[in-house]
Structures
1.
Amino acid sequence: MGNIAILCSGGDVSGMNPALKRFVEYSFEKGLTPYFVYHGYEGLIDDKIVPAGFKDVSGIITRGGTKLGSARSKRFMEPEYRRQAYENLKKHGIDKLVVLGGDGSFRGMDKFYHETGIQFCGIPSTIDNDINGTDYCLGVDTALNIIKHSVDAIRDTAGAFRRAFVIETMGRDCGYLALVSAMTSGAEMCLIPELEYDLERYSDCYRKQIAAGRDYFIAIIAEGVKINGVKATDVIVDWFEKEIGFESRATVLGHTQRGGNPTVYDRLMAYKFVTYAIDGLLSEHTHSVICYTKSHFTYKSIDEVTGSRYQLDPALLDLARSEYQQVLCPLPL
Ligand code: F6P
């Protein structure tokens, strides 16, 4: 049936290894010969392309990160390197690629398809959950669970001192991780790029709550939020000290959010995404992204996926408004 390869591009996510396992197994089931490309598009250019077997994926389902490594390749943007990548794929007889990555990676691949005819299917993979056209990106559930563990642990120590804890989540310009984490961890404050906020409202509420006995606060801030050009995390730490009169500590969760044992949901989504990607490539879907929308998998074109900016689910935002925008302030404690 031919040769097919898989690669990981951009920020790695937990769920990539389960995806690699399913890729090898399902390729064989479909009569295809699976190949691994190491280090994303860099590996295509440098011919880090090797046949993959069952042994290569044995035991990796429990591991975060990616066995293949990933990269953000600048060289792949240059036509001469894309030509080199094409020559390498031709040498190995590969005409189909599964790409785990983000919209930038898919755009590069689409260009490559139109230049060379190498078919591809993109699998949305980023903890940011900010790819237009899909409700879910691989790795998000594991990242949310890592955040949950951290916030729960901070809550344990929070009660021991009279303090405010300001926790920064990843997500670039998207507030999904921060918002879902705040709603599911019972945070008192959440700042994300998509919701307006008024610190006066927070301060009125917190004064009332302190008078009623509150002795700690947990604030979750998306990394993309700035206040007067300064990272919001730093501003809010200061604000708690000066405006609220609480000793304050910042925790930037950083890359802990990208690792960890993949959750059941991410393992299952990896299984499904890869199965649909290979099925798509074996049918008429020569250059698409497999998206998960309204509980269904759909093949979408690059234009559909990259044509507009991802918008956070308005229903989710509505749910969070009373707590994090209007700050309705439940009392008494
Ligand atoms: O896109 C995934 C992501 O983890 C973002 O949330 C974050 O801003 C960025 O990647 C970090 O990139 P790097 O790993 O290059 O520091």
2.
Amino acid sequence: MNELIGRVFSFGKQVFPNQSDLYGKLAAHGQSPKALMISCADSRVVPEQIMQAQPGDLFVCRNAGNIIPPYATQNGGVTSTVEYAVMALGIRDIIVCGHSDCGAMKAVANPAGLDAMPNVAAWLKHSAAAAKVVNDGYPELDGVERVRAVILENVVAQLANLRTHPSVAAGIARGEISLHGWFFDIGHGQILALDGGTNRFVALKDDGELPVALKASPRLAAGLEFAQAAE
Ligand code: ZN
């Protein structure tokens, strides 16, 4: 048997017995996760480990390139997961997490190798804004530095896409939802977070305030306080 597949038996024999109380509560009372993380499918990025999350803590959506298609362009898994997280689970914090050495973003930076993968190529069009920002904005970059810039700009682009989703837009307007843009450096185990105040990615430090891409704050554009969601 594949050694990895065989490890499922150790979950049943060793891991589950130590956590059976937690699983029992979750089975009886359902889930109420505290955040939604949209991350890459890369095997080196493990949201639950990065967040030190227990079962029930984190609602997770993973795909190649941590992409969120803009609303109405695609009725798919990401759109449905975002809508369910906000509307059914009442999630108030959404994290978009990119990472170093991302294969999807390497392909966005250098699309030549995508001819044999038409679905990947079509999917990565949702990151076209990141490629354009880097090509036009940082023309001097090449190699690893250019890919890193695409990865960071892709987090920014996907946060913008996320805001096109009506459930998210309404939650933001009510001041209920915070957006977080993160970058996970695999080699250093470090998280950088987009600070919406300075428009820079900065290292997370446990003695400082958490940098937030978009802080929850009620919109008053119409001169009125938004109605709170019905409890
Ligand atoms: Zn990736």
